[in-house]
Design a protein that fits this description.
Rossmann fold, 404 residues, 5-stranded parallel beta sheet, DNA Cyclobutane Dipyrimidine Photolyase, subunit A, domain 3, mainly alpha, Serine Threonine Protein Phosphatase 5, Tetratricopeptide repeat, 5 strands
C-alpha cells in the first residue's frame, strides 16, 4: 500500500498540486490508458482522498480551472462530476442500495451451496482464471487497493459476461478492497456495465480495446465473450425527493460530528467560533469482509481529520467508541452543548451507522443538524435521470458556484 503514502489531507493536496499541470489536454488524451501500478501519471490518483473528502470536489475543480481553460479541462471536470452524479442518483433512489444488499445476500448463499460456482469465484478473486489481463487486475486490487477506471470497466464486464459470475459478487469484491470504494459509484457502475442501470445498454470488454489501452501489455484475443446480451432486471424506481438542506443554528454553540465520508470540517459552511468540540465516529466495519488495508486507510483518514479539526478550531476532540452514544452525550455535556452538526451522509453503510447513533440520542435533549455541501446541493437535483442531463448543466452550475 506504499503508493498511497498517507491517508491525510496534506498528501491529497500534494497529489493535487502534482496533477494540476496535467489536468488539461494531456489528461483528455491519456486518461484511458492503463499502464499498470507503476505508472499512474496520466490520472490524478485523488479518488481515495475524494472518497473521504480529505479534499473536496470544489477544491480540485477550482485548482484545475485556475491553470486550464474550462474547455481544456472539460474531460477531467466531467470525471469529477461523474462521482457527484452517482451519489445524487442513489440518494434519490435509495432502494437500489437495499436491493443490491438483498441480492448479494442471496448470491453469497448460493456460493455456500454450489461448489462449481464457488470454485469459479475463488479463481476470479485470486487471479487464477487463465485470462492474463483479468488475473493481473485481480491481484493488483488485492495488493494495491486500486484499479484504473478503465480496468474496472473491463474487469466488471469480463466478470459478468465471460466468467458468468453474479454481478453483485463482483461489486462486493471491489467494494471490500478498493481504498476509494464508494457505495454509489461502485454499485451503480457495476449495474451500468451489466446493462441494468440503463436498460439494454451494457459495456462489453473487447480484446482489441484492452490491447490498445494497455499498450500491448495484455491481448486477450479469443478469450472474451464479445457478443453478450445485457442482464435482465426490473426498471429503476422513480426518484424520490431530496432531503431539504437544514439550516445552521445562529449564535449557538455546537459540537461537530465527523464521519468517514467528509473529513475536512475546516471547510464546512459553519461559524468556526461556535464550534466547542469535535467528535469522530470510528471507521465503519459493518460491511462484511472489508479488507484490513481499507479499514486502516479509513481509520488513518479519520484520525487526520480529527487532529486537523482540533488545530483548526482550537477545541477538545474525541474519537468515539464503536456502538452506542453514551460517550457522545457525555462529550456534548462536557462542552455545554446541546446541538450536534454533521455533514449529510450519502446512502450506504456510513448512513446506517450515523442513523443508529442519532436514534440512540433519543431522550438526551441533543439535536442533530445535517448540513449539505453547496457542491452537492447544486448538482444532485440534476442527477434524476442519465448523466447527460447533469453534464449539460456543468458550465452554468460552475458559474453559479463562482468557478467561472
Amino acid at each position: 500500500m506504499d503508493e498511497w503514502h498517507a491517508a491525510t489531507r496534506e498528501e491529497a493536496m500534494r497529489r493535487l498540486a502534482d496533477f494540476v499541470p496535467r489536468a488539461g489536454s494531456a489528461y483528455a488524451r491519456e486518461r484511458n490508458f492503463d499502464r499498470g501500478p507503476d505508472d499512474r501519471r496520466n490520472v490524478s490518483t485523488l479518488s481515495p482522498y475524494l472518497r473521504h473528502r480529505l479534499i473536496g470536489e470544489e477544491e480540485v475543480v477550482r485548482a484545475v480551472l485556475s491553470k486550464h481553460r474550462s474547455s481544456g479541462a472539460q474531460k477531467f471536470v466531467e470525471e469529477i462530476c461523474w462521482r457527484t452524479y452517482w451519489k445524487g442518483w442513489l440518494e434519490q433512489r435509495p432502494s437500489i442500495w437495499w436491493d443490491y444488499l438483498s441480492e448479494l445476500q442471496n448470491d453469497r448463499a448460493n456460493l455456500a451451496s454450489d461448489e462449481a460456482l464457488r470454485r469459479r469465484y475463488r479463481d476470479a478473486i485470486s487471479g487464477e482464471t487463465g485470462i492474463a489481463a483479468f488475473d493481473a487486475w485481480s491481484r493488483q486490487l488485492l495488493a494495491h487497493g486500486y484499479l484504473h477506471n478503465h480496468a474496472r470497466m473491463w474487469f466488471a464486464s469480463i466478470w459478468i459476461f465471460t466468467l458468468r459470475l453474479p454481478w453483485t459478487l463482483g461489486a462486493d469484491f471491489l467494494y471490500r478492497h478498493l481504498l476509494d470504494g464508494d457505495p454509489a459509484s461502485n454499485t451503480l457502475s457495476w449495474r451500468w456495465v451489466a446493462g441494468l442501470q440503463t436498460r439494454g445498454k451494457h459495456y462489453i470488454a473487447r480484446a482489441e480495446n484492452i490491447r490498445q489501452y494497455t499498450e500491448g501489455r495484455f491481448d486477450p484475443a479469443g478469450e472474451l465473450n464479445e457478443a453478450p446480451d445485457p442482464l435482465e432486471g426490473p426498471e429503476a424506481p422513480p426518484p424520490v425527493r431530496l432531503r431539504p438542506p437544514m439550516s445552521m443554528p445562529a449564535n449557538e454553540p455546537v459540537v461537530l460530528l465527523l464521519g468517514e465520508d467528509d473529513l475536512s470540517p475546516e471547510r464546512w459552511p459553519i461559524d468556526t467560533s461556535a464550534v466547542k468540540g469535535v467528535a469522530a465516529l470510528p471507521a465503519d466495519t459493518s460491511y462484511s469482509g472489508l479488507a484490513e488495508a481499507v479499514i486502516a486507510f479509513r481509520s488513518a483518514a479519520i484520525n487526520d481529520g480529527l487532529a486537523r479539526a482540533g488545530r483548526s478550531f482550537g477545541c477538545p476532540v474525541t474519537l468515539l467508541a464503536p456502538g452506542g452514544s453514551d460517550d457522545l452525550v457525555a462529550f456534548c455535556r462536557a462542552q455545554g452543548v446541546e446541538t450536534i452538526v454533521t455533514p449529510q451522509v450519502p446512502i450506504g453503510p456510513s448512513r446506517e451507522m450515523l442513523e443508529t447513533r442519532v436514534a440512540a440520542l433519543s431522550g438526551s435533549g441533543l439535536a442533530v443538524i445535517g448540513i449539505r455541501r453547496d457542491w452537492d446541493s447544486a448538482f444532485w437535483p440534476y442527477a434524476r435521470h442519465g448523466f447527460f442531463k447533469l453534464k449539460e448543466r456543468i458550465p452554468e452550475t460552475l458559474e453559479r458556484l463562482g468557478f467561472l
